[in-house]
Specification:
- The structure holds 2 protein chains of 2 kinds.
- Chain A has one domain.
- In chain A, helix 4 packs antiparallel against helix 8 and helix 4 crosses helix 10.
- The mean pLDDT of chain A is 92.
- By secondary structure, chain A is an all-alpha fold.
- The radius of gyration of chain A is 19 Å and the shape is elongated.
- Chain A is built from 11 helices and 2 strands, in the order H-H-H-E-E-H-H-H-H-H-H-H-H.
- A two-stranded antiparallel sheet of chain A has the order 1-2.
- Chain B is built from 10 helices and 14 strands.
- The two termini of chain B are 35 Å apart.
- In chain B, the strands form 3 sheets. A 6-stranded mixed sheet of chain B has the order 6-7-8-3-9-10, sandwiched between helices. A 4-stranded antiparallel sheet of chain B has the order 2-1-4-5, with helices on one face.
- Chain B is of the alpha/beta class.
- In chain B, helix 3 packs across helix 4 and helix 3 packs parallel to helix 5.
- The chains are: A mainly alpha, B alpha/beta.
């Protein structure tokens, strides 16, 4: 092994990402199929059946309006769930020790798991996008905004899943945050409606929800329509990524939940 | 060269339990080193600190030329660990586990696959290479952990009870395998509850008890300290009722079995002469207990009394 330190790190990172991707592909009936089925039902029920009675929202048919939000919701949930479940399982089965005893720096462990979660988020996002094409046309007004926002959102929630898994002491504890925090924030984050429909007080409360910014920025990328300034959305998400990365690294360096 | 240097190592867990009390230990390159101790003595904590699985409270650990604090990556790259508990992903295929582990050490797939194949052949796992790890038998899982620890060709192999729950045939084949890799230059540290295993394999030994090193020497010197040994003799014909073995302490176990205790100053020739004079023929002879076991128990009991 005469490779340089950076070459060895690159190989280690690739190995970890490959293992993570192989994991979610191996268990595709648990990871890739459910979001496809769930989103198909959303498109049929909310988009077709109910949406046809709602009429237009923000100048678009209701189906067109909810497609970006539903894609983003799938990406967020799957990026989070992948890392939370994979990292916690590695702790639970103790095979995280394979990584701890190996010469893999903590930032690479974090990067590898987050890349795996991001990959699953984007993979599911593509599946949901393909499903949505059976129901409506999807224009993409701003390709860079669309791609960068979905990518950054996947990274952010993969980081969230990682921190959740570090603290988790049981499988229940990796389900609590998605169920009681993530899902309500997503549903109230403008996936199904424009916040302009809300009374002013609730509009202001909604502005505290970070998912609102991601959904709206992504919708802006696709439809050219947003309830919030896109620049603020990018600023918030980048600041959040930096903060969560620093915190996750701090926990890893301390060995929280990993080392005695 | 020293493969492992532990200096003034202490570990106190959050609950206040002091697992290691200022221990120091050197393992020379090429050694086959036994680290023995009763349950809860601190063996696994020591191994945990060396391999970064446990955070130490105080002290220094160097692996070859690298300190585990200032140069952890280099130190880790020297070590291969076979832990006490199975700790692989049971849902992954056997060969994937090896290639993935090699990847963590910077080996590309092209480098890792031939190495994994070699180890799978050597450890009798080739037929199972595409099976998931959880479908393996207990013995195969142990061998998989050894293969995984060796995949990056470590200079220091640490085995924490590698033959626990393994049948005697497999245990002996693992001994041969470990002796071979030690002869090829790998330094080995072994913890085990099978003292026969430590006596057969290891040239150096440290005994740890209640977080302290109570003995650290070479196996031969330690065994030389044994001041008495008990032998069991199988006799060809039933013993006469009135045998005379002079000063030897003996006990008749049954008609054809005799247990004799020998002081270090006595020798077997005298015993056999006495038996021959009385027409007693011996078919076979064995130690009543493993020699190291007798010493180990006496050392550990002494610590318990004095502490």
């Amino acid at each position: 092994m005469n490779a340089t330190k950076y070459q060895r790190h690159w190989v280690a990172f690739n190995t970890l990402v490959t293992r993570e991707i192989r994991r979610f592909l191996r268990i595709w009936p648990q990871t890739l199929l459910p979001p496809a089925i769930t989103m198909t039902l959303y498109f049929i029920i909310f988009g077709n059946l109910i949406g046809s009675r709602i009429g237009e929202m923000g100048g678009f048919s209701y189906m067109e309006y909810i497609v970006p939000g539903l894609i983003m919701m799938s990406v967020i949930n799957n990026a989070y769930a992948n890392v939370a479940s994979s990292f916690y399982s590695a702790k639970f089965q103790s095979h995280i020790e394979e990584l701890i005893v190996a010469p893999v720096p903590n930032y690479l462990i974090l990067a590898g798991y987050v890349a795996g979660g991001t990959a699953r988020g984007l993979f599911v996002g593509i599946i949901v996008t393909i499903v949505s094409l059976f129901f409506t046309q999807i224009p993409v007004q701003h390709l860079f905004v669309t791609c960068s926002m979905v990518f950054l959102s996947a990274i952010l929630f993969a980081l969230g899943g990682f921190i959740n898994a570090i603290y988790a002491r049981s499988f229940d504890e990796i389900a609590i945050i998605p169920t009681f925090i993530l899902t309500p924030l997503t549903y109230l984050g403008g996936v199904f409606y424009s916040i302009s429909l809300l009374p002013e007080f609730w509009q202001n409360v909604s502005m505290l929800n970070p998912i609102l910014y991601m959904v709206n920025a992504f919708r802006y990328g696709m439809l050219g329509e947003s309830d919030i300034p896109v620049g603020i959305a990018f600023t918030i998400i980048i600041v959040c990524i930096i903060a969560l990365t620093s915190f996750a690294l701090h926990l890893l360096n301390k060995g929280t939940g990993l080392r005695n | 060269m020293t493969a492992l240097t532990i200096s003034n190592l202490s570990k106190t867990y959050k609950n206040g339990y002091q697992a290691l009390k200022n221990i120091s230990l050197d393992v020379e390159q090429g050694d086959f080193f036994a680290l023995l101790g009763p349950n809860g003595a601190g063996k696994s904590t020591t191994i945990g600190v060396i391999t970064s699985l446990v955070t130490k409270t105080a002290g220094k650990v160097r692996v070859f030329d690298s300190d585990i604090d200032s140069d952890p990556e280099q130190a880790k790259s020297y070590i291969g660990l076979v832990p006490q508990e199975f700790n692989f992903n049971g849902f992954e295929q056997v060969k994937h586990i090896l290639v993935t582990q090699a990847g963590y050490y910077g080996m590309t797939v092209a480098q890792a696959e031939p190495r994994a194949d070699e180890l799978l052949h050597q450890l009798g796992l080739w037929q199972k290479r595409h099976s998931t790890a959880r479908s393996l038998s207990g013995g195969m899982k142990r061998r998989l952990m050894i293969a995984r620890a060796l995949v990056h060709k470590p200079k220091l192999l640490i085995l924490d009870e590698p033959t626990a729950g393994v049948d005697i045939e497999l245990r002996r084949s693992m001994w041969t395998f470990l002796q071979n890799i030690n002869e090829e230059g790998t330094t080995i540290i072994l913890t085990t509850h099978y003292l026969e295993e430590a006596e057969n394999l290891c040239r150096k030994i440290a005994i740890i008890d209640q977080g302290k090193i109570i003995e650290n020497t070479d196996m031969k010197s330690l065994l030389n300290r044994l001041d008495r040994e008990t032998f069991i003799l199988d006799l060809k014909a039933p013993l006469p009722t009135d045998i005379n073995l002079n000063n030897f302490n003996f006990e008749r176990i049954d008609d054809t079995t005799l247990e004799v205790e020998l002081e270090r100053t006595e020798n077997l020739n005298t015993l056999f002469s006495l038996l021959s004079e009385q027409g007693i023929e011996v078919c076979s002879m064995k130690n009543k207990a493993n020699r190291l076991e007798e010493l180990f128990l006496s050392l550990v009991e002494t610590t318990e009394i004095t502490s």
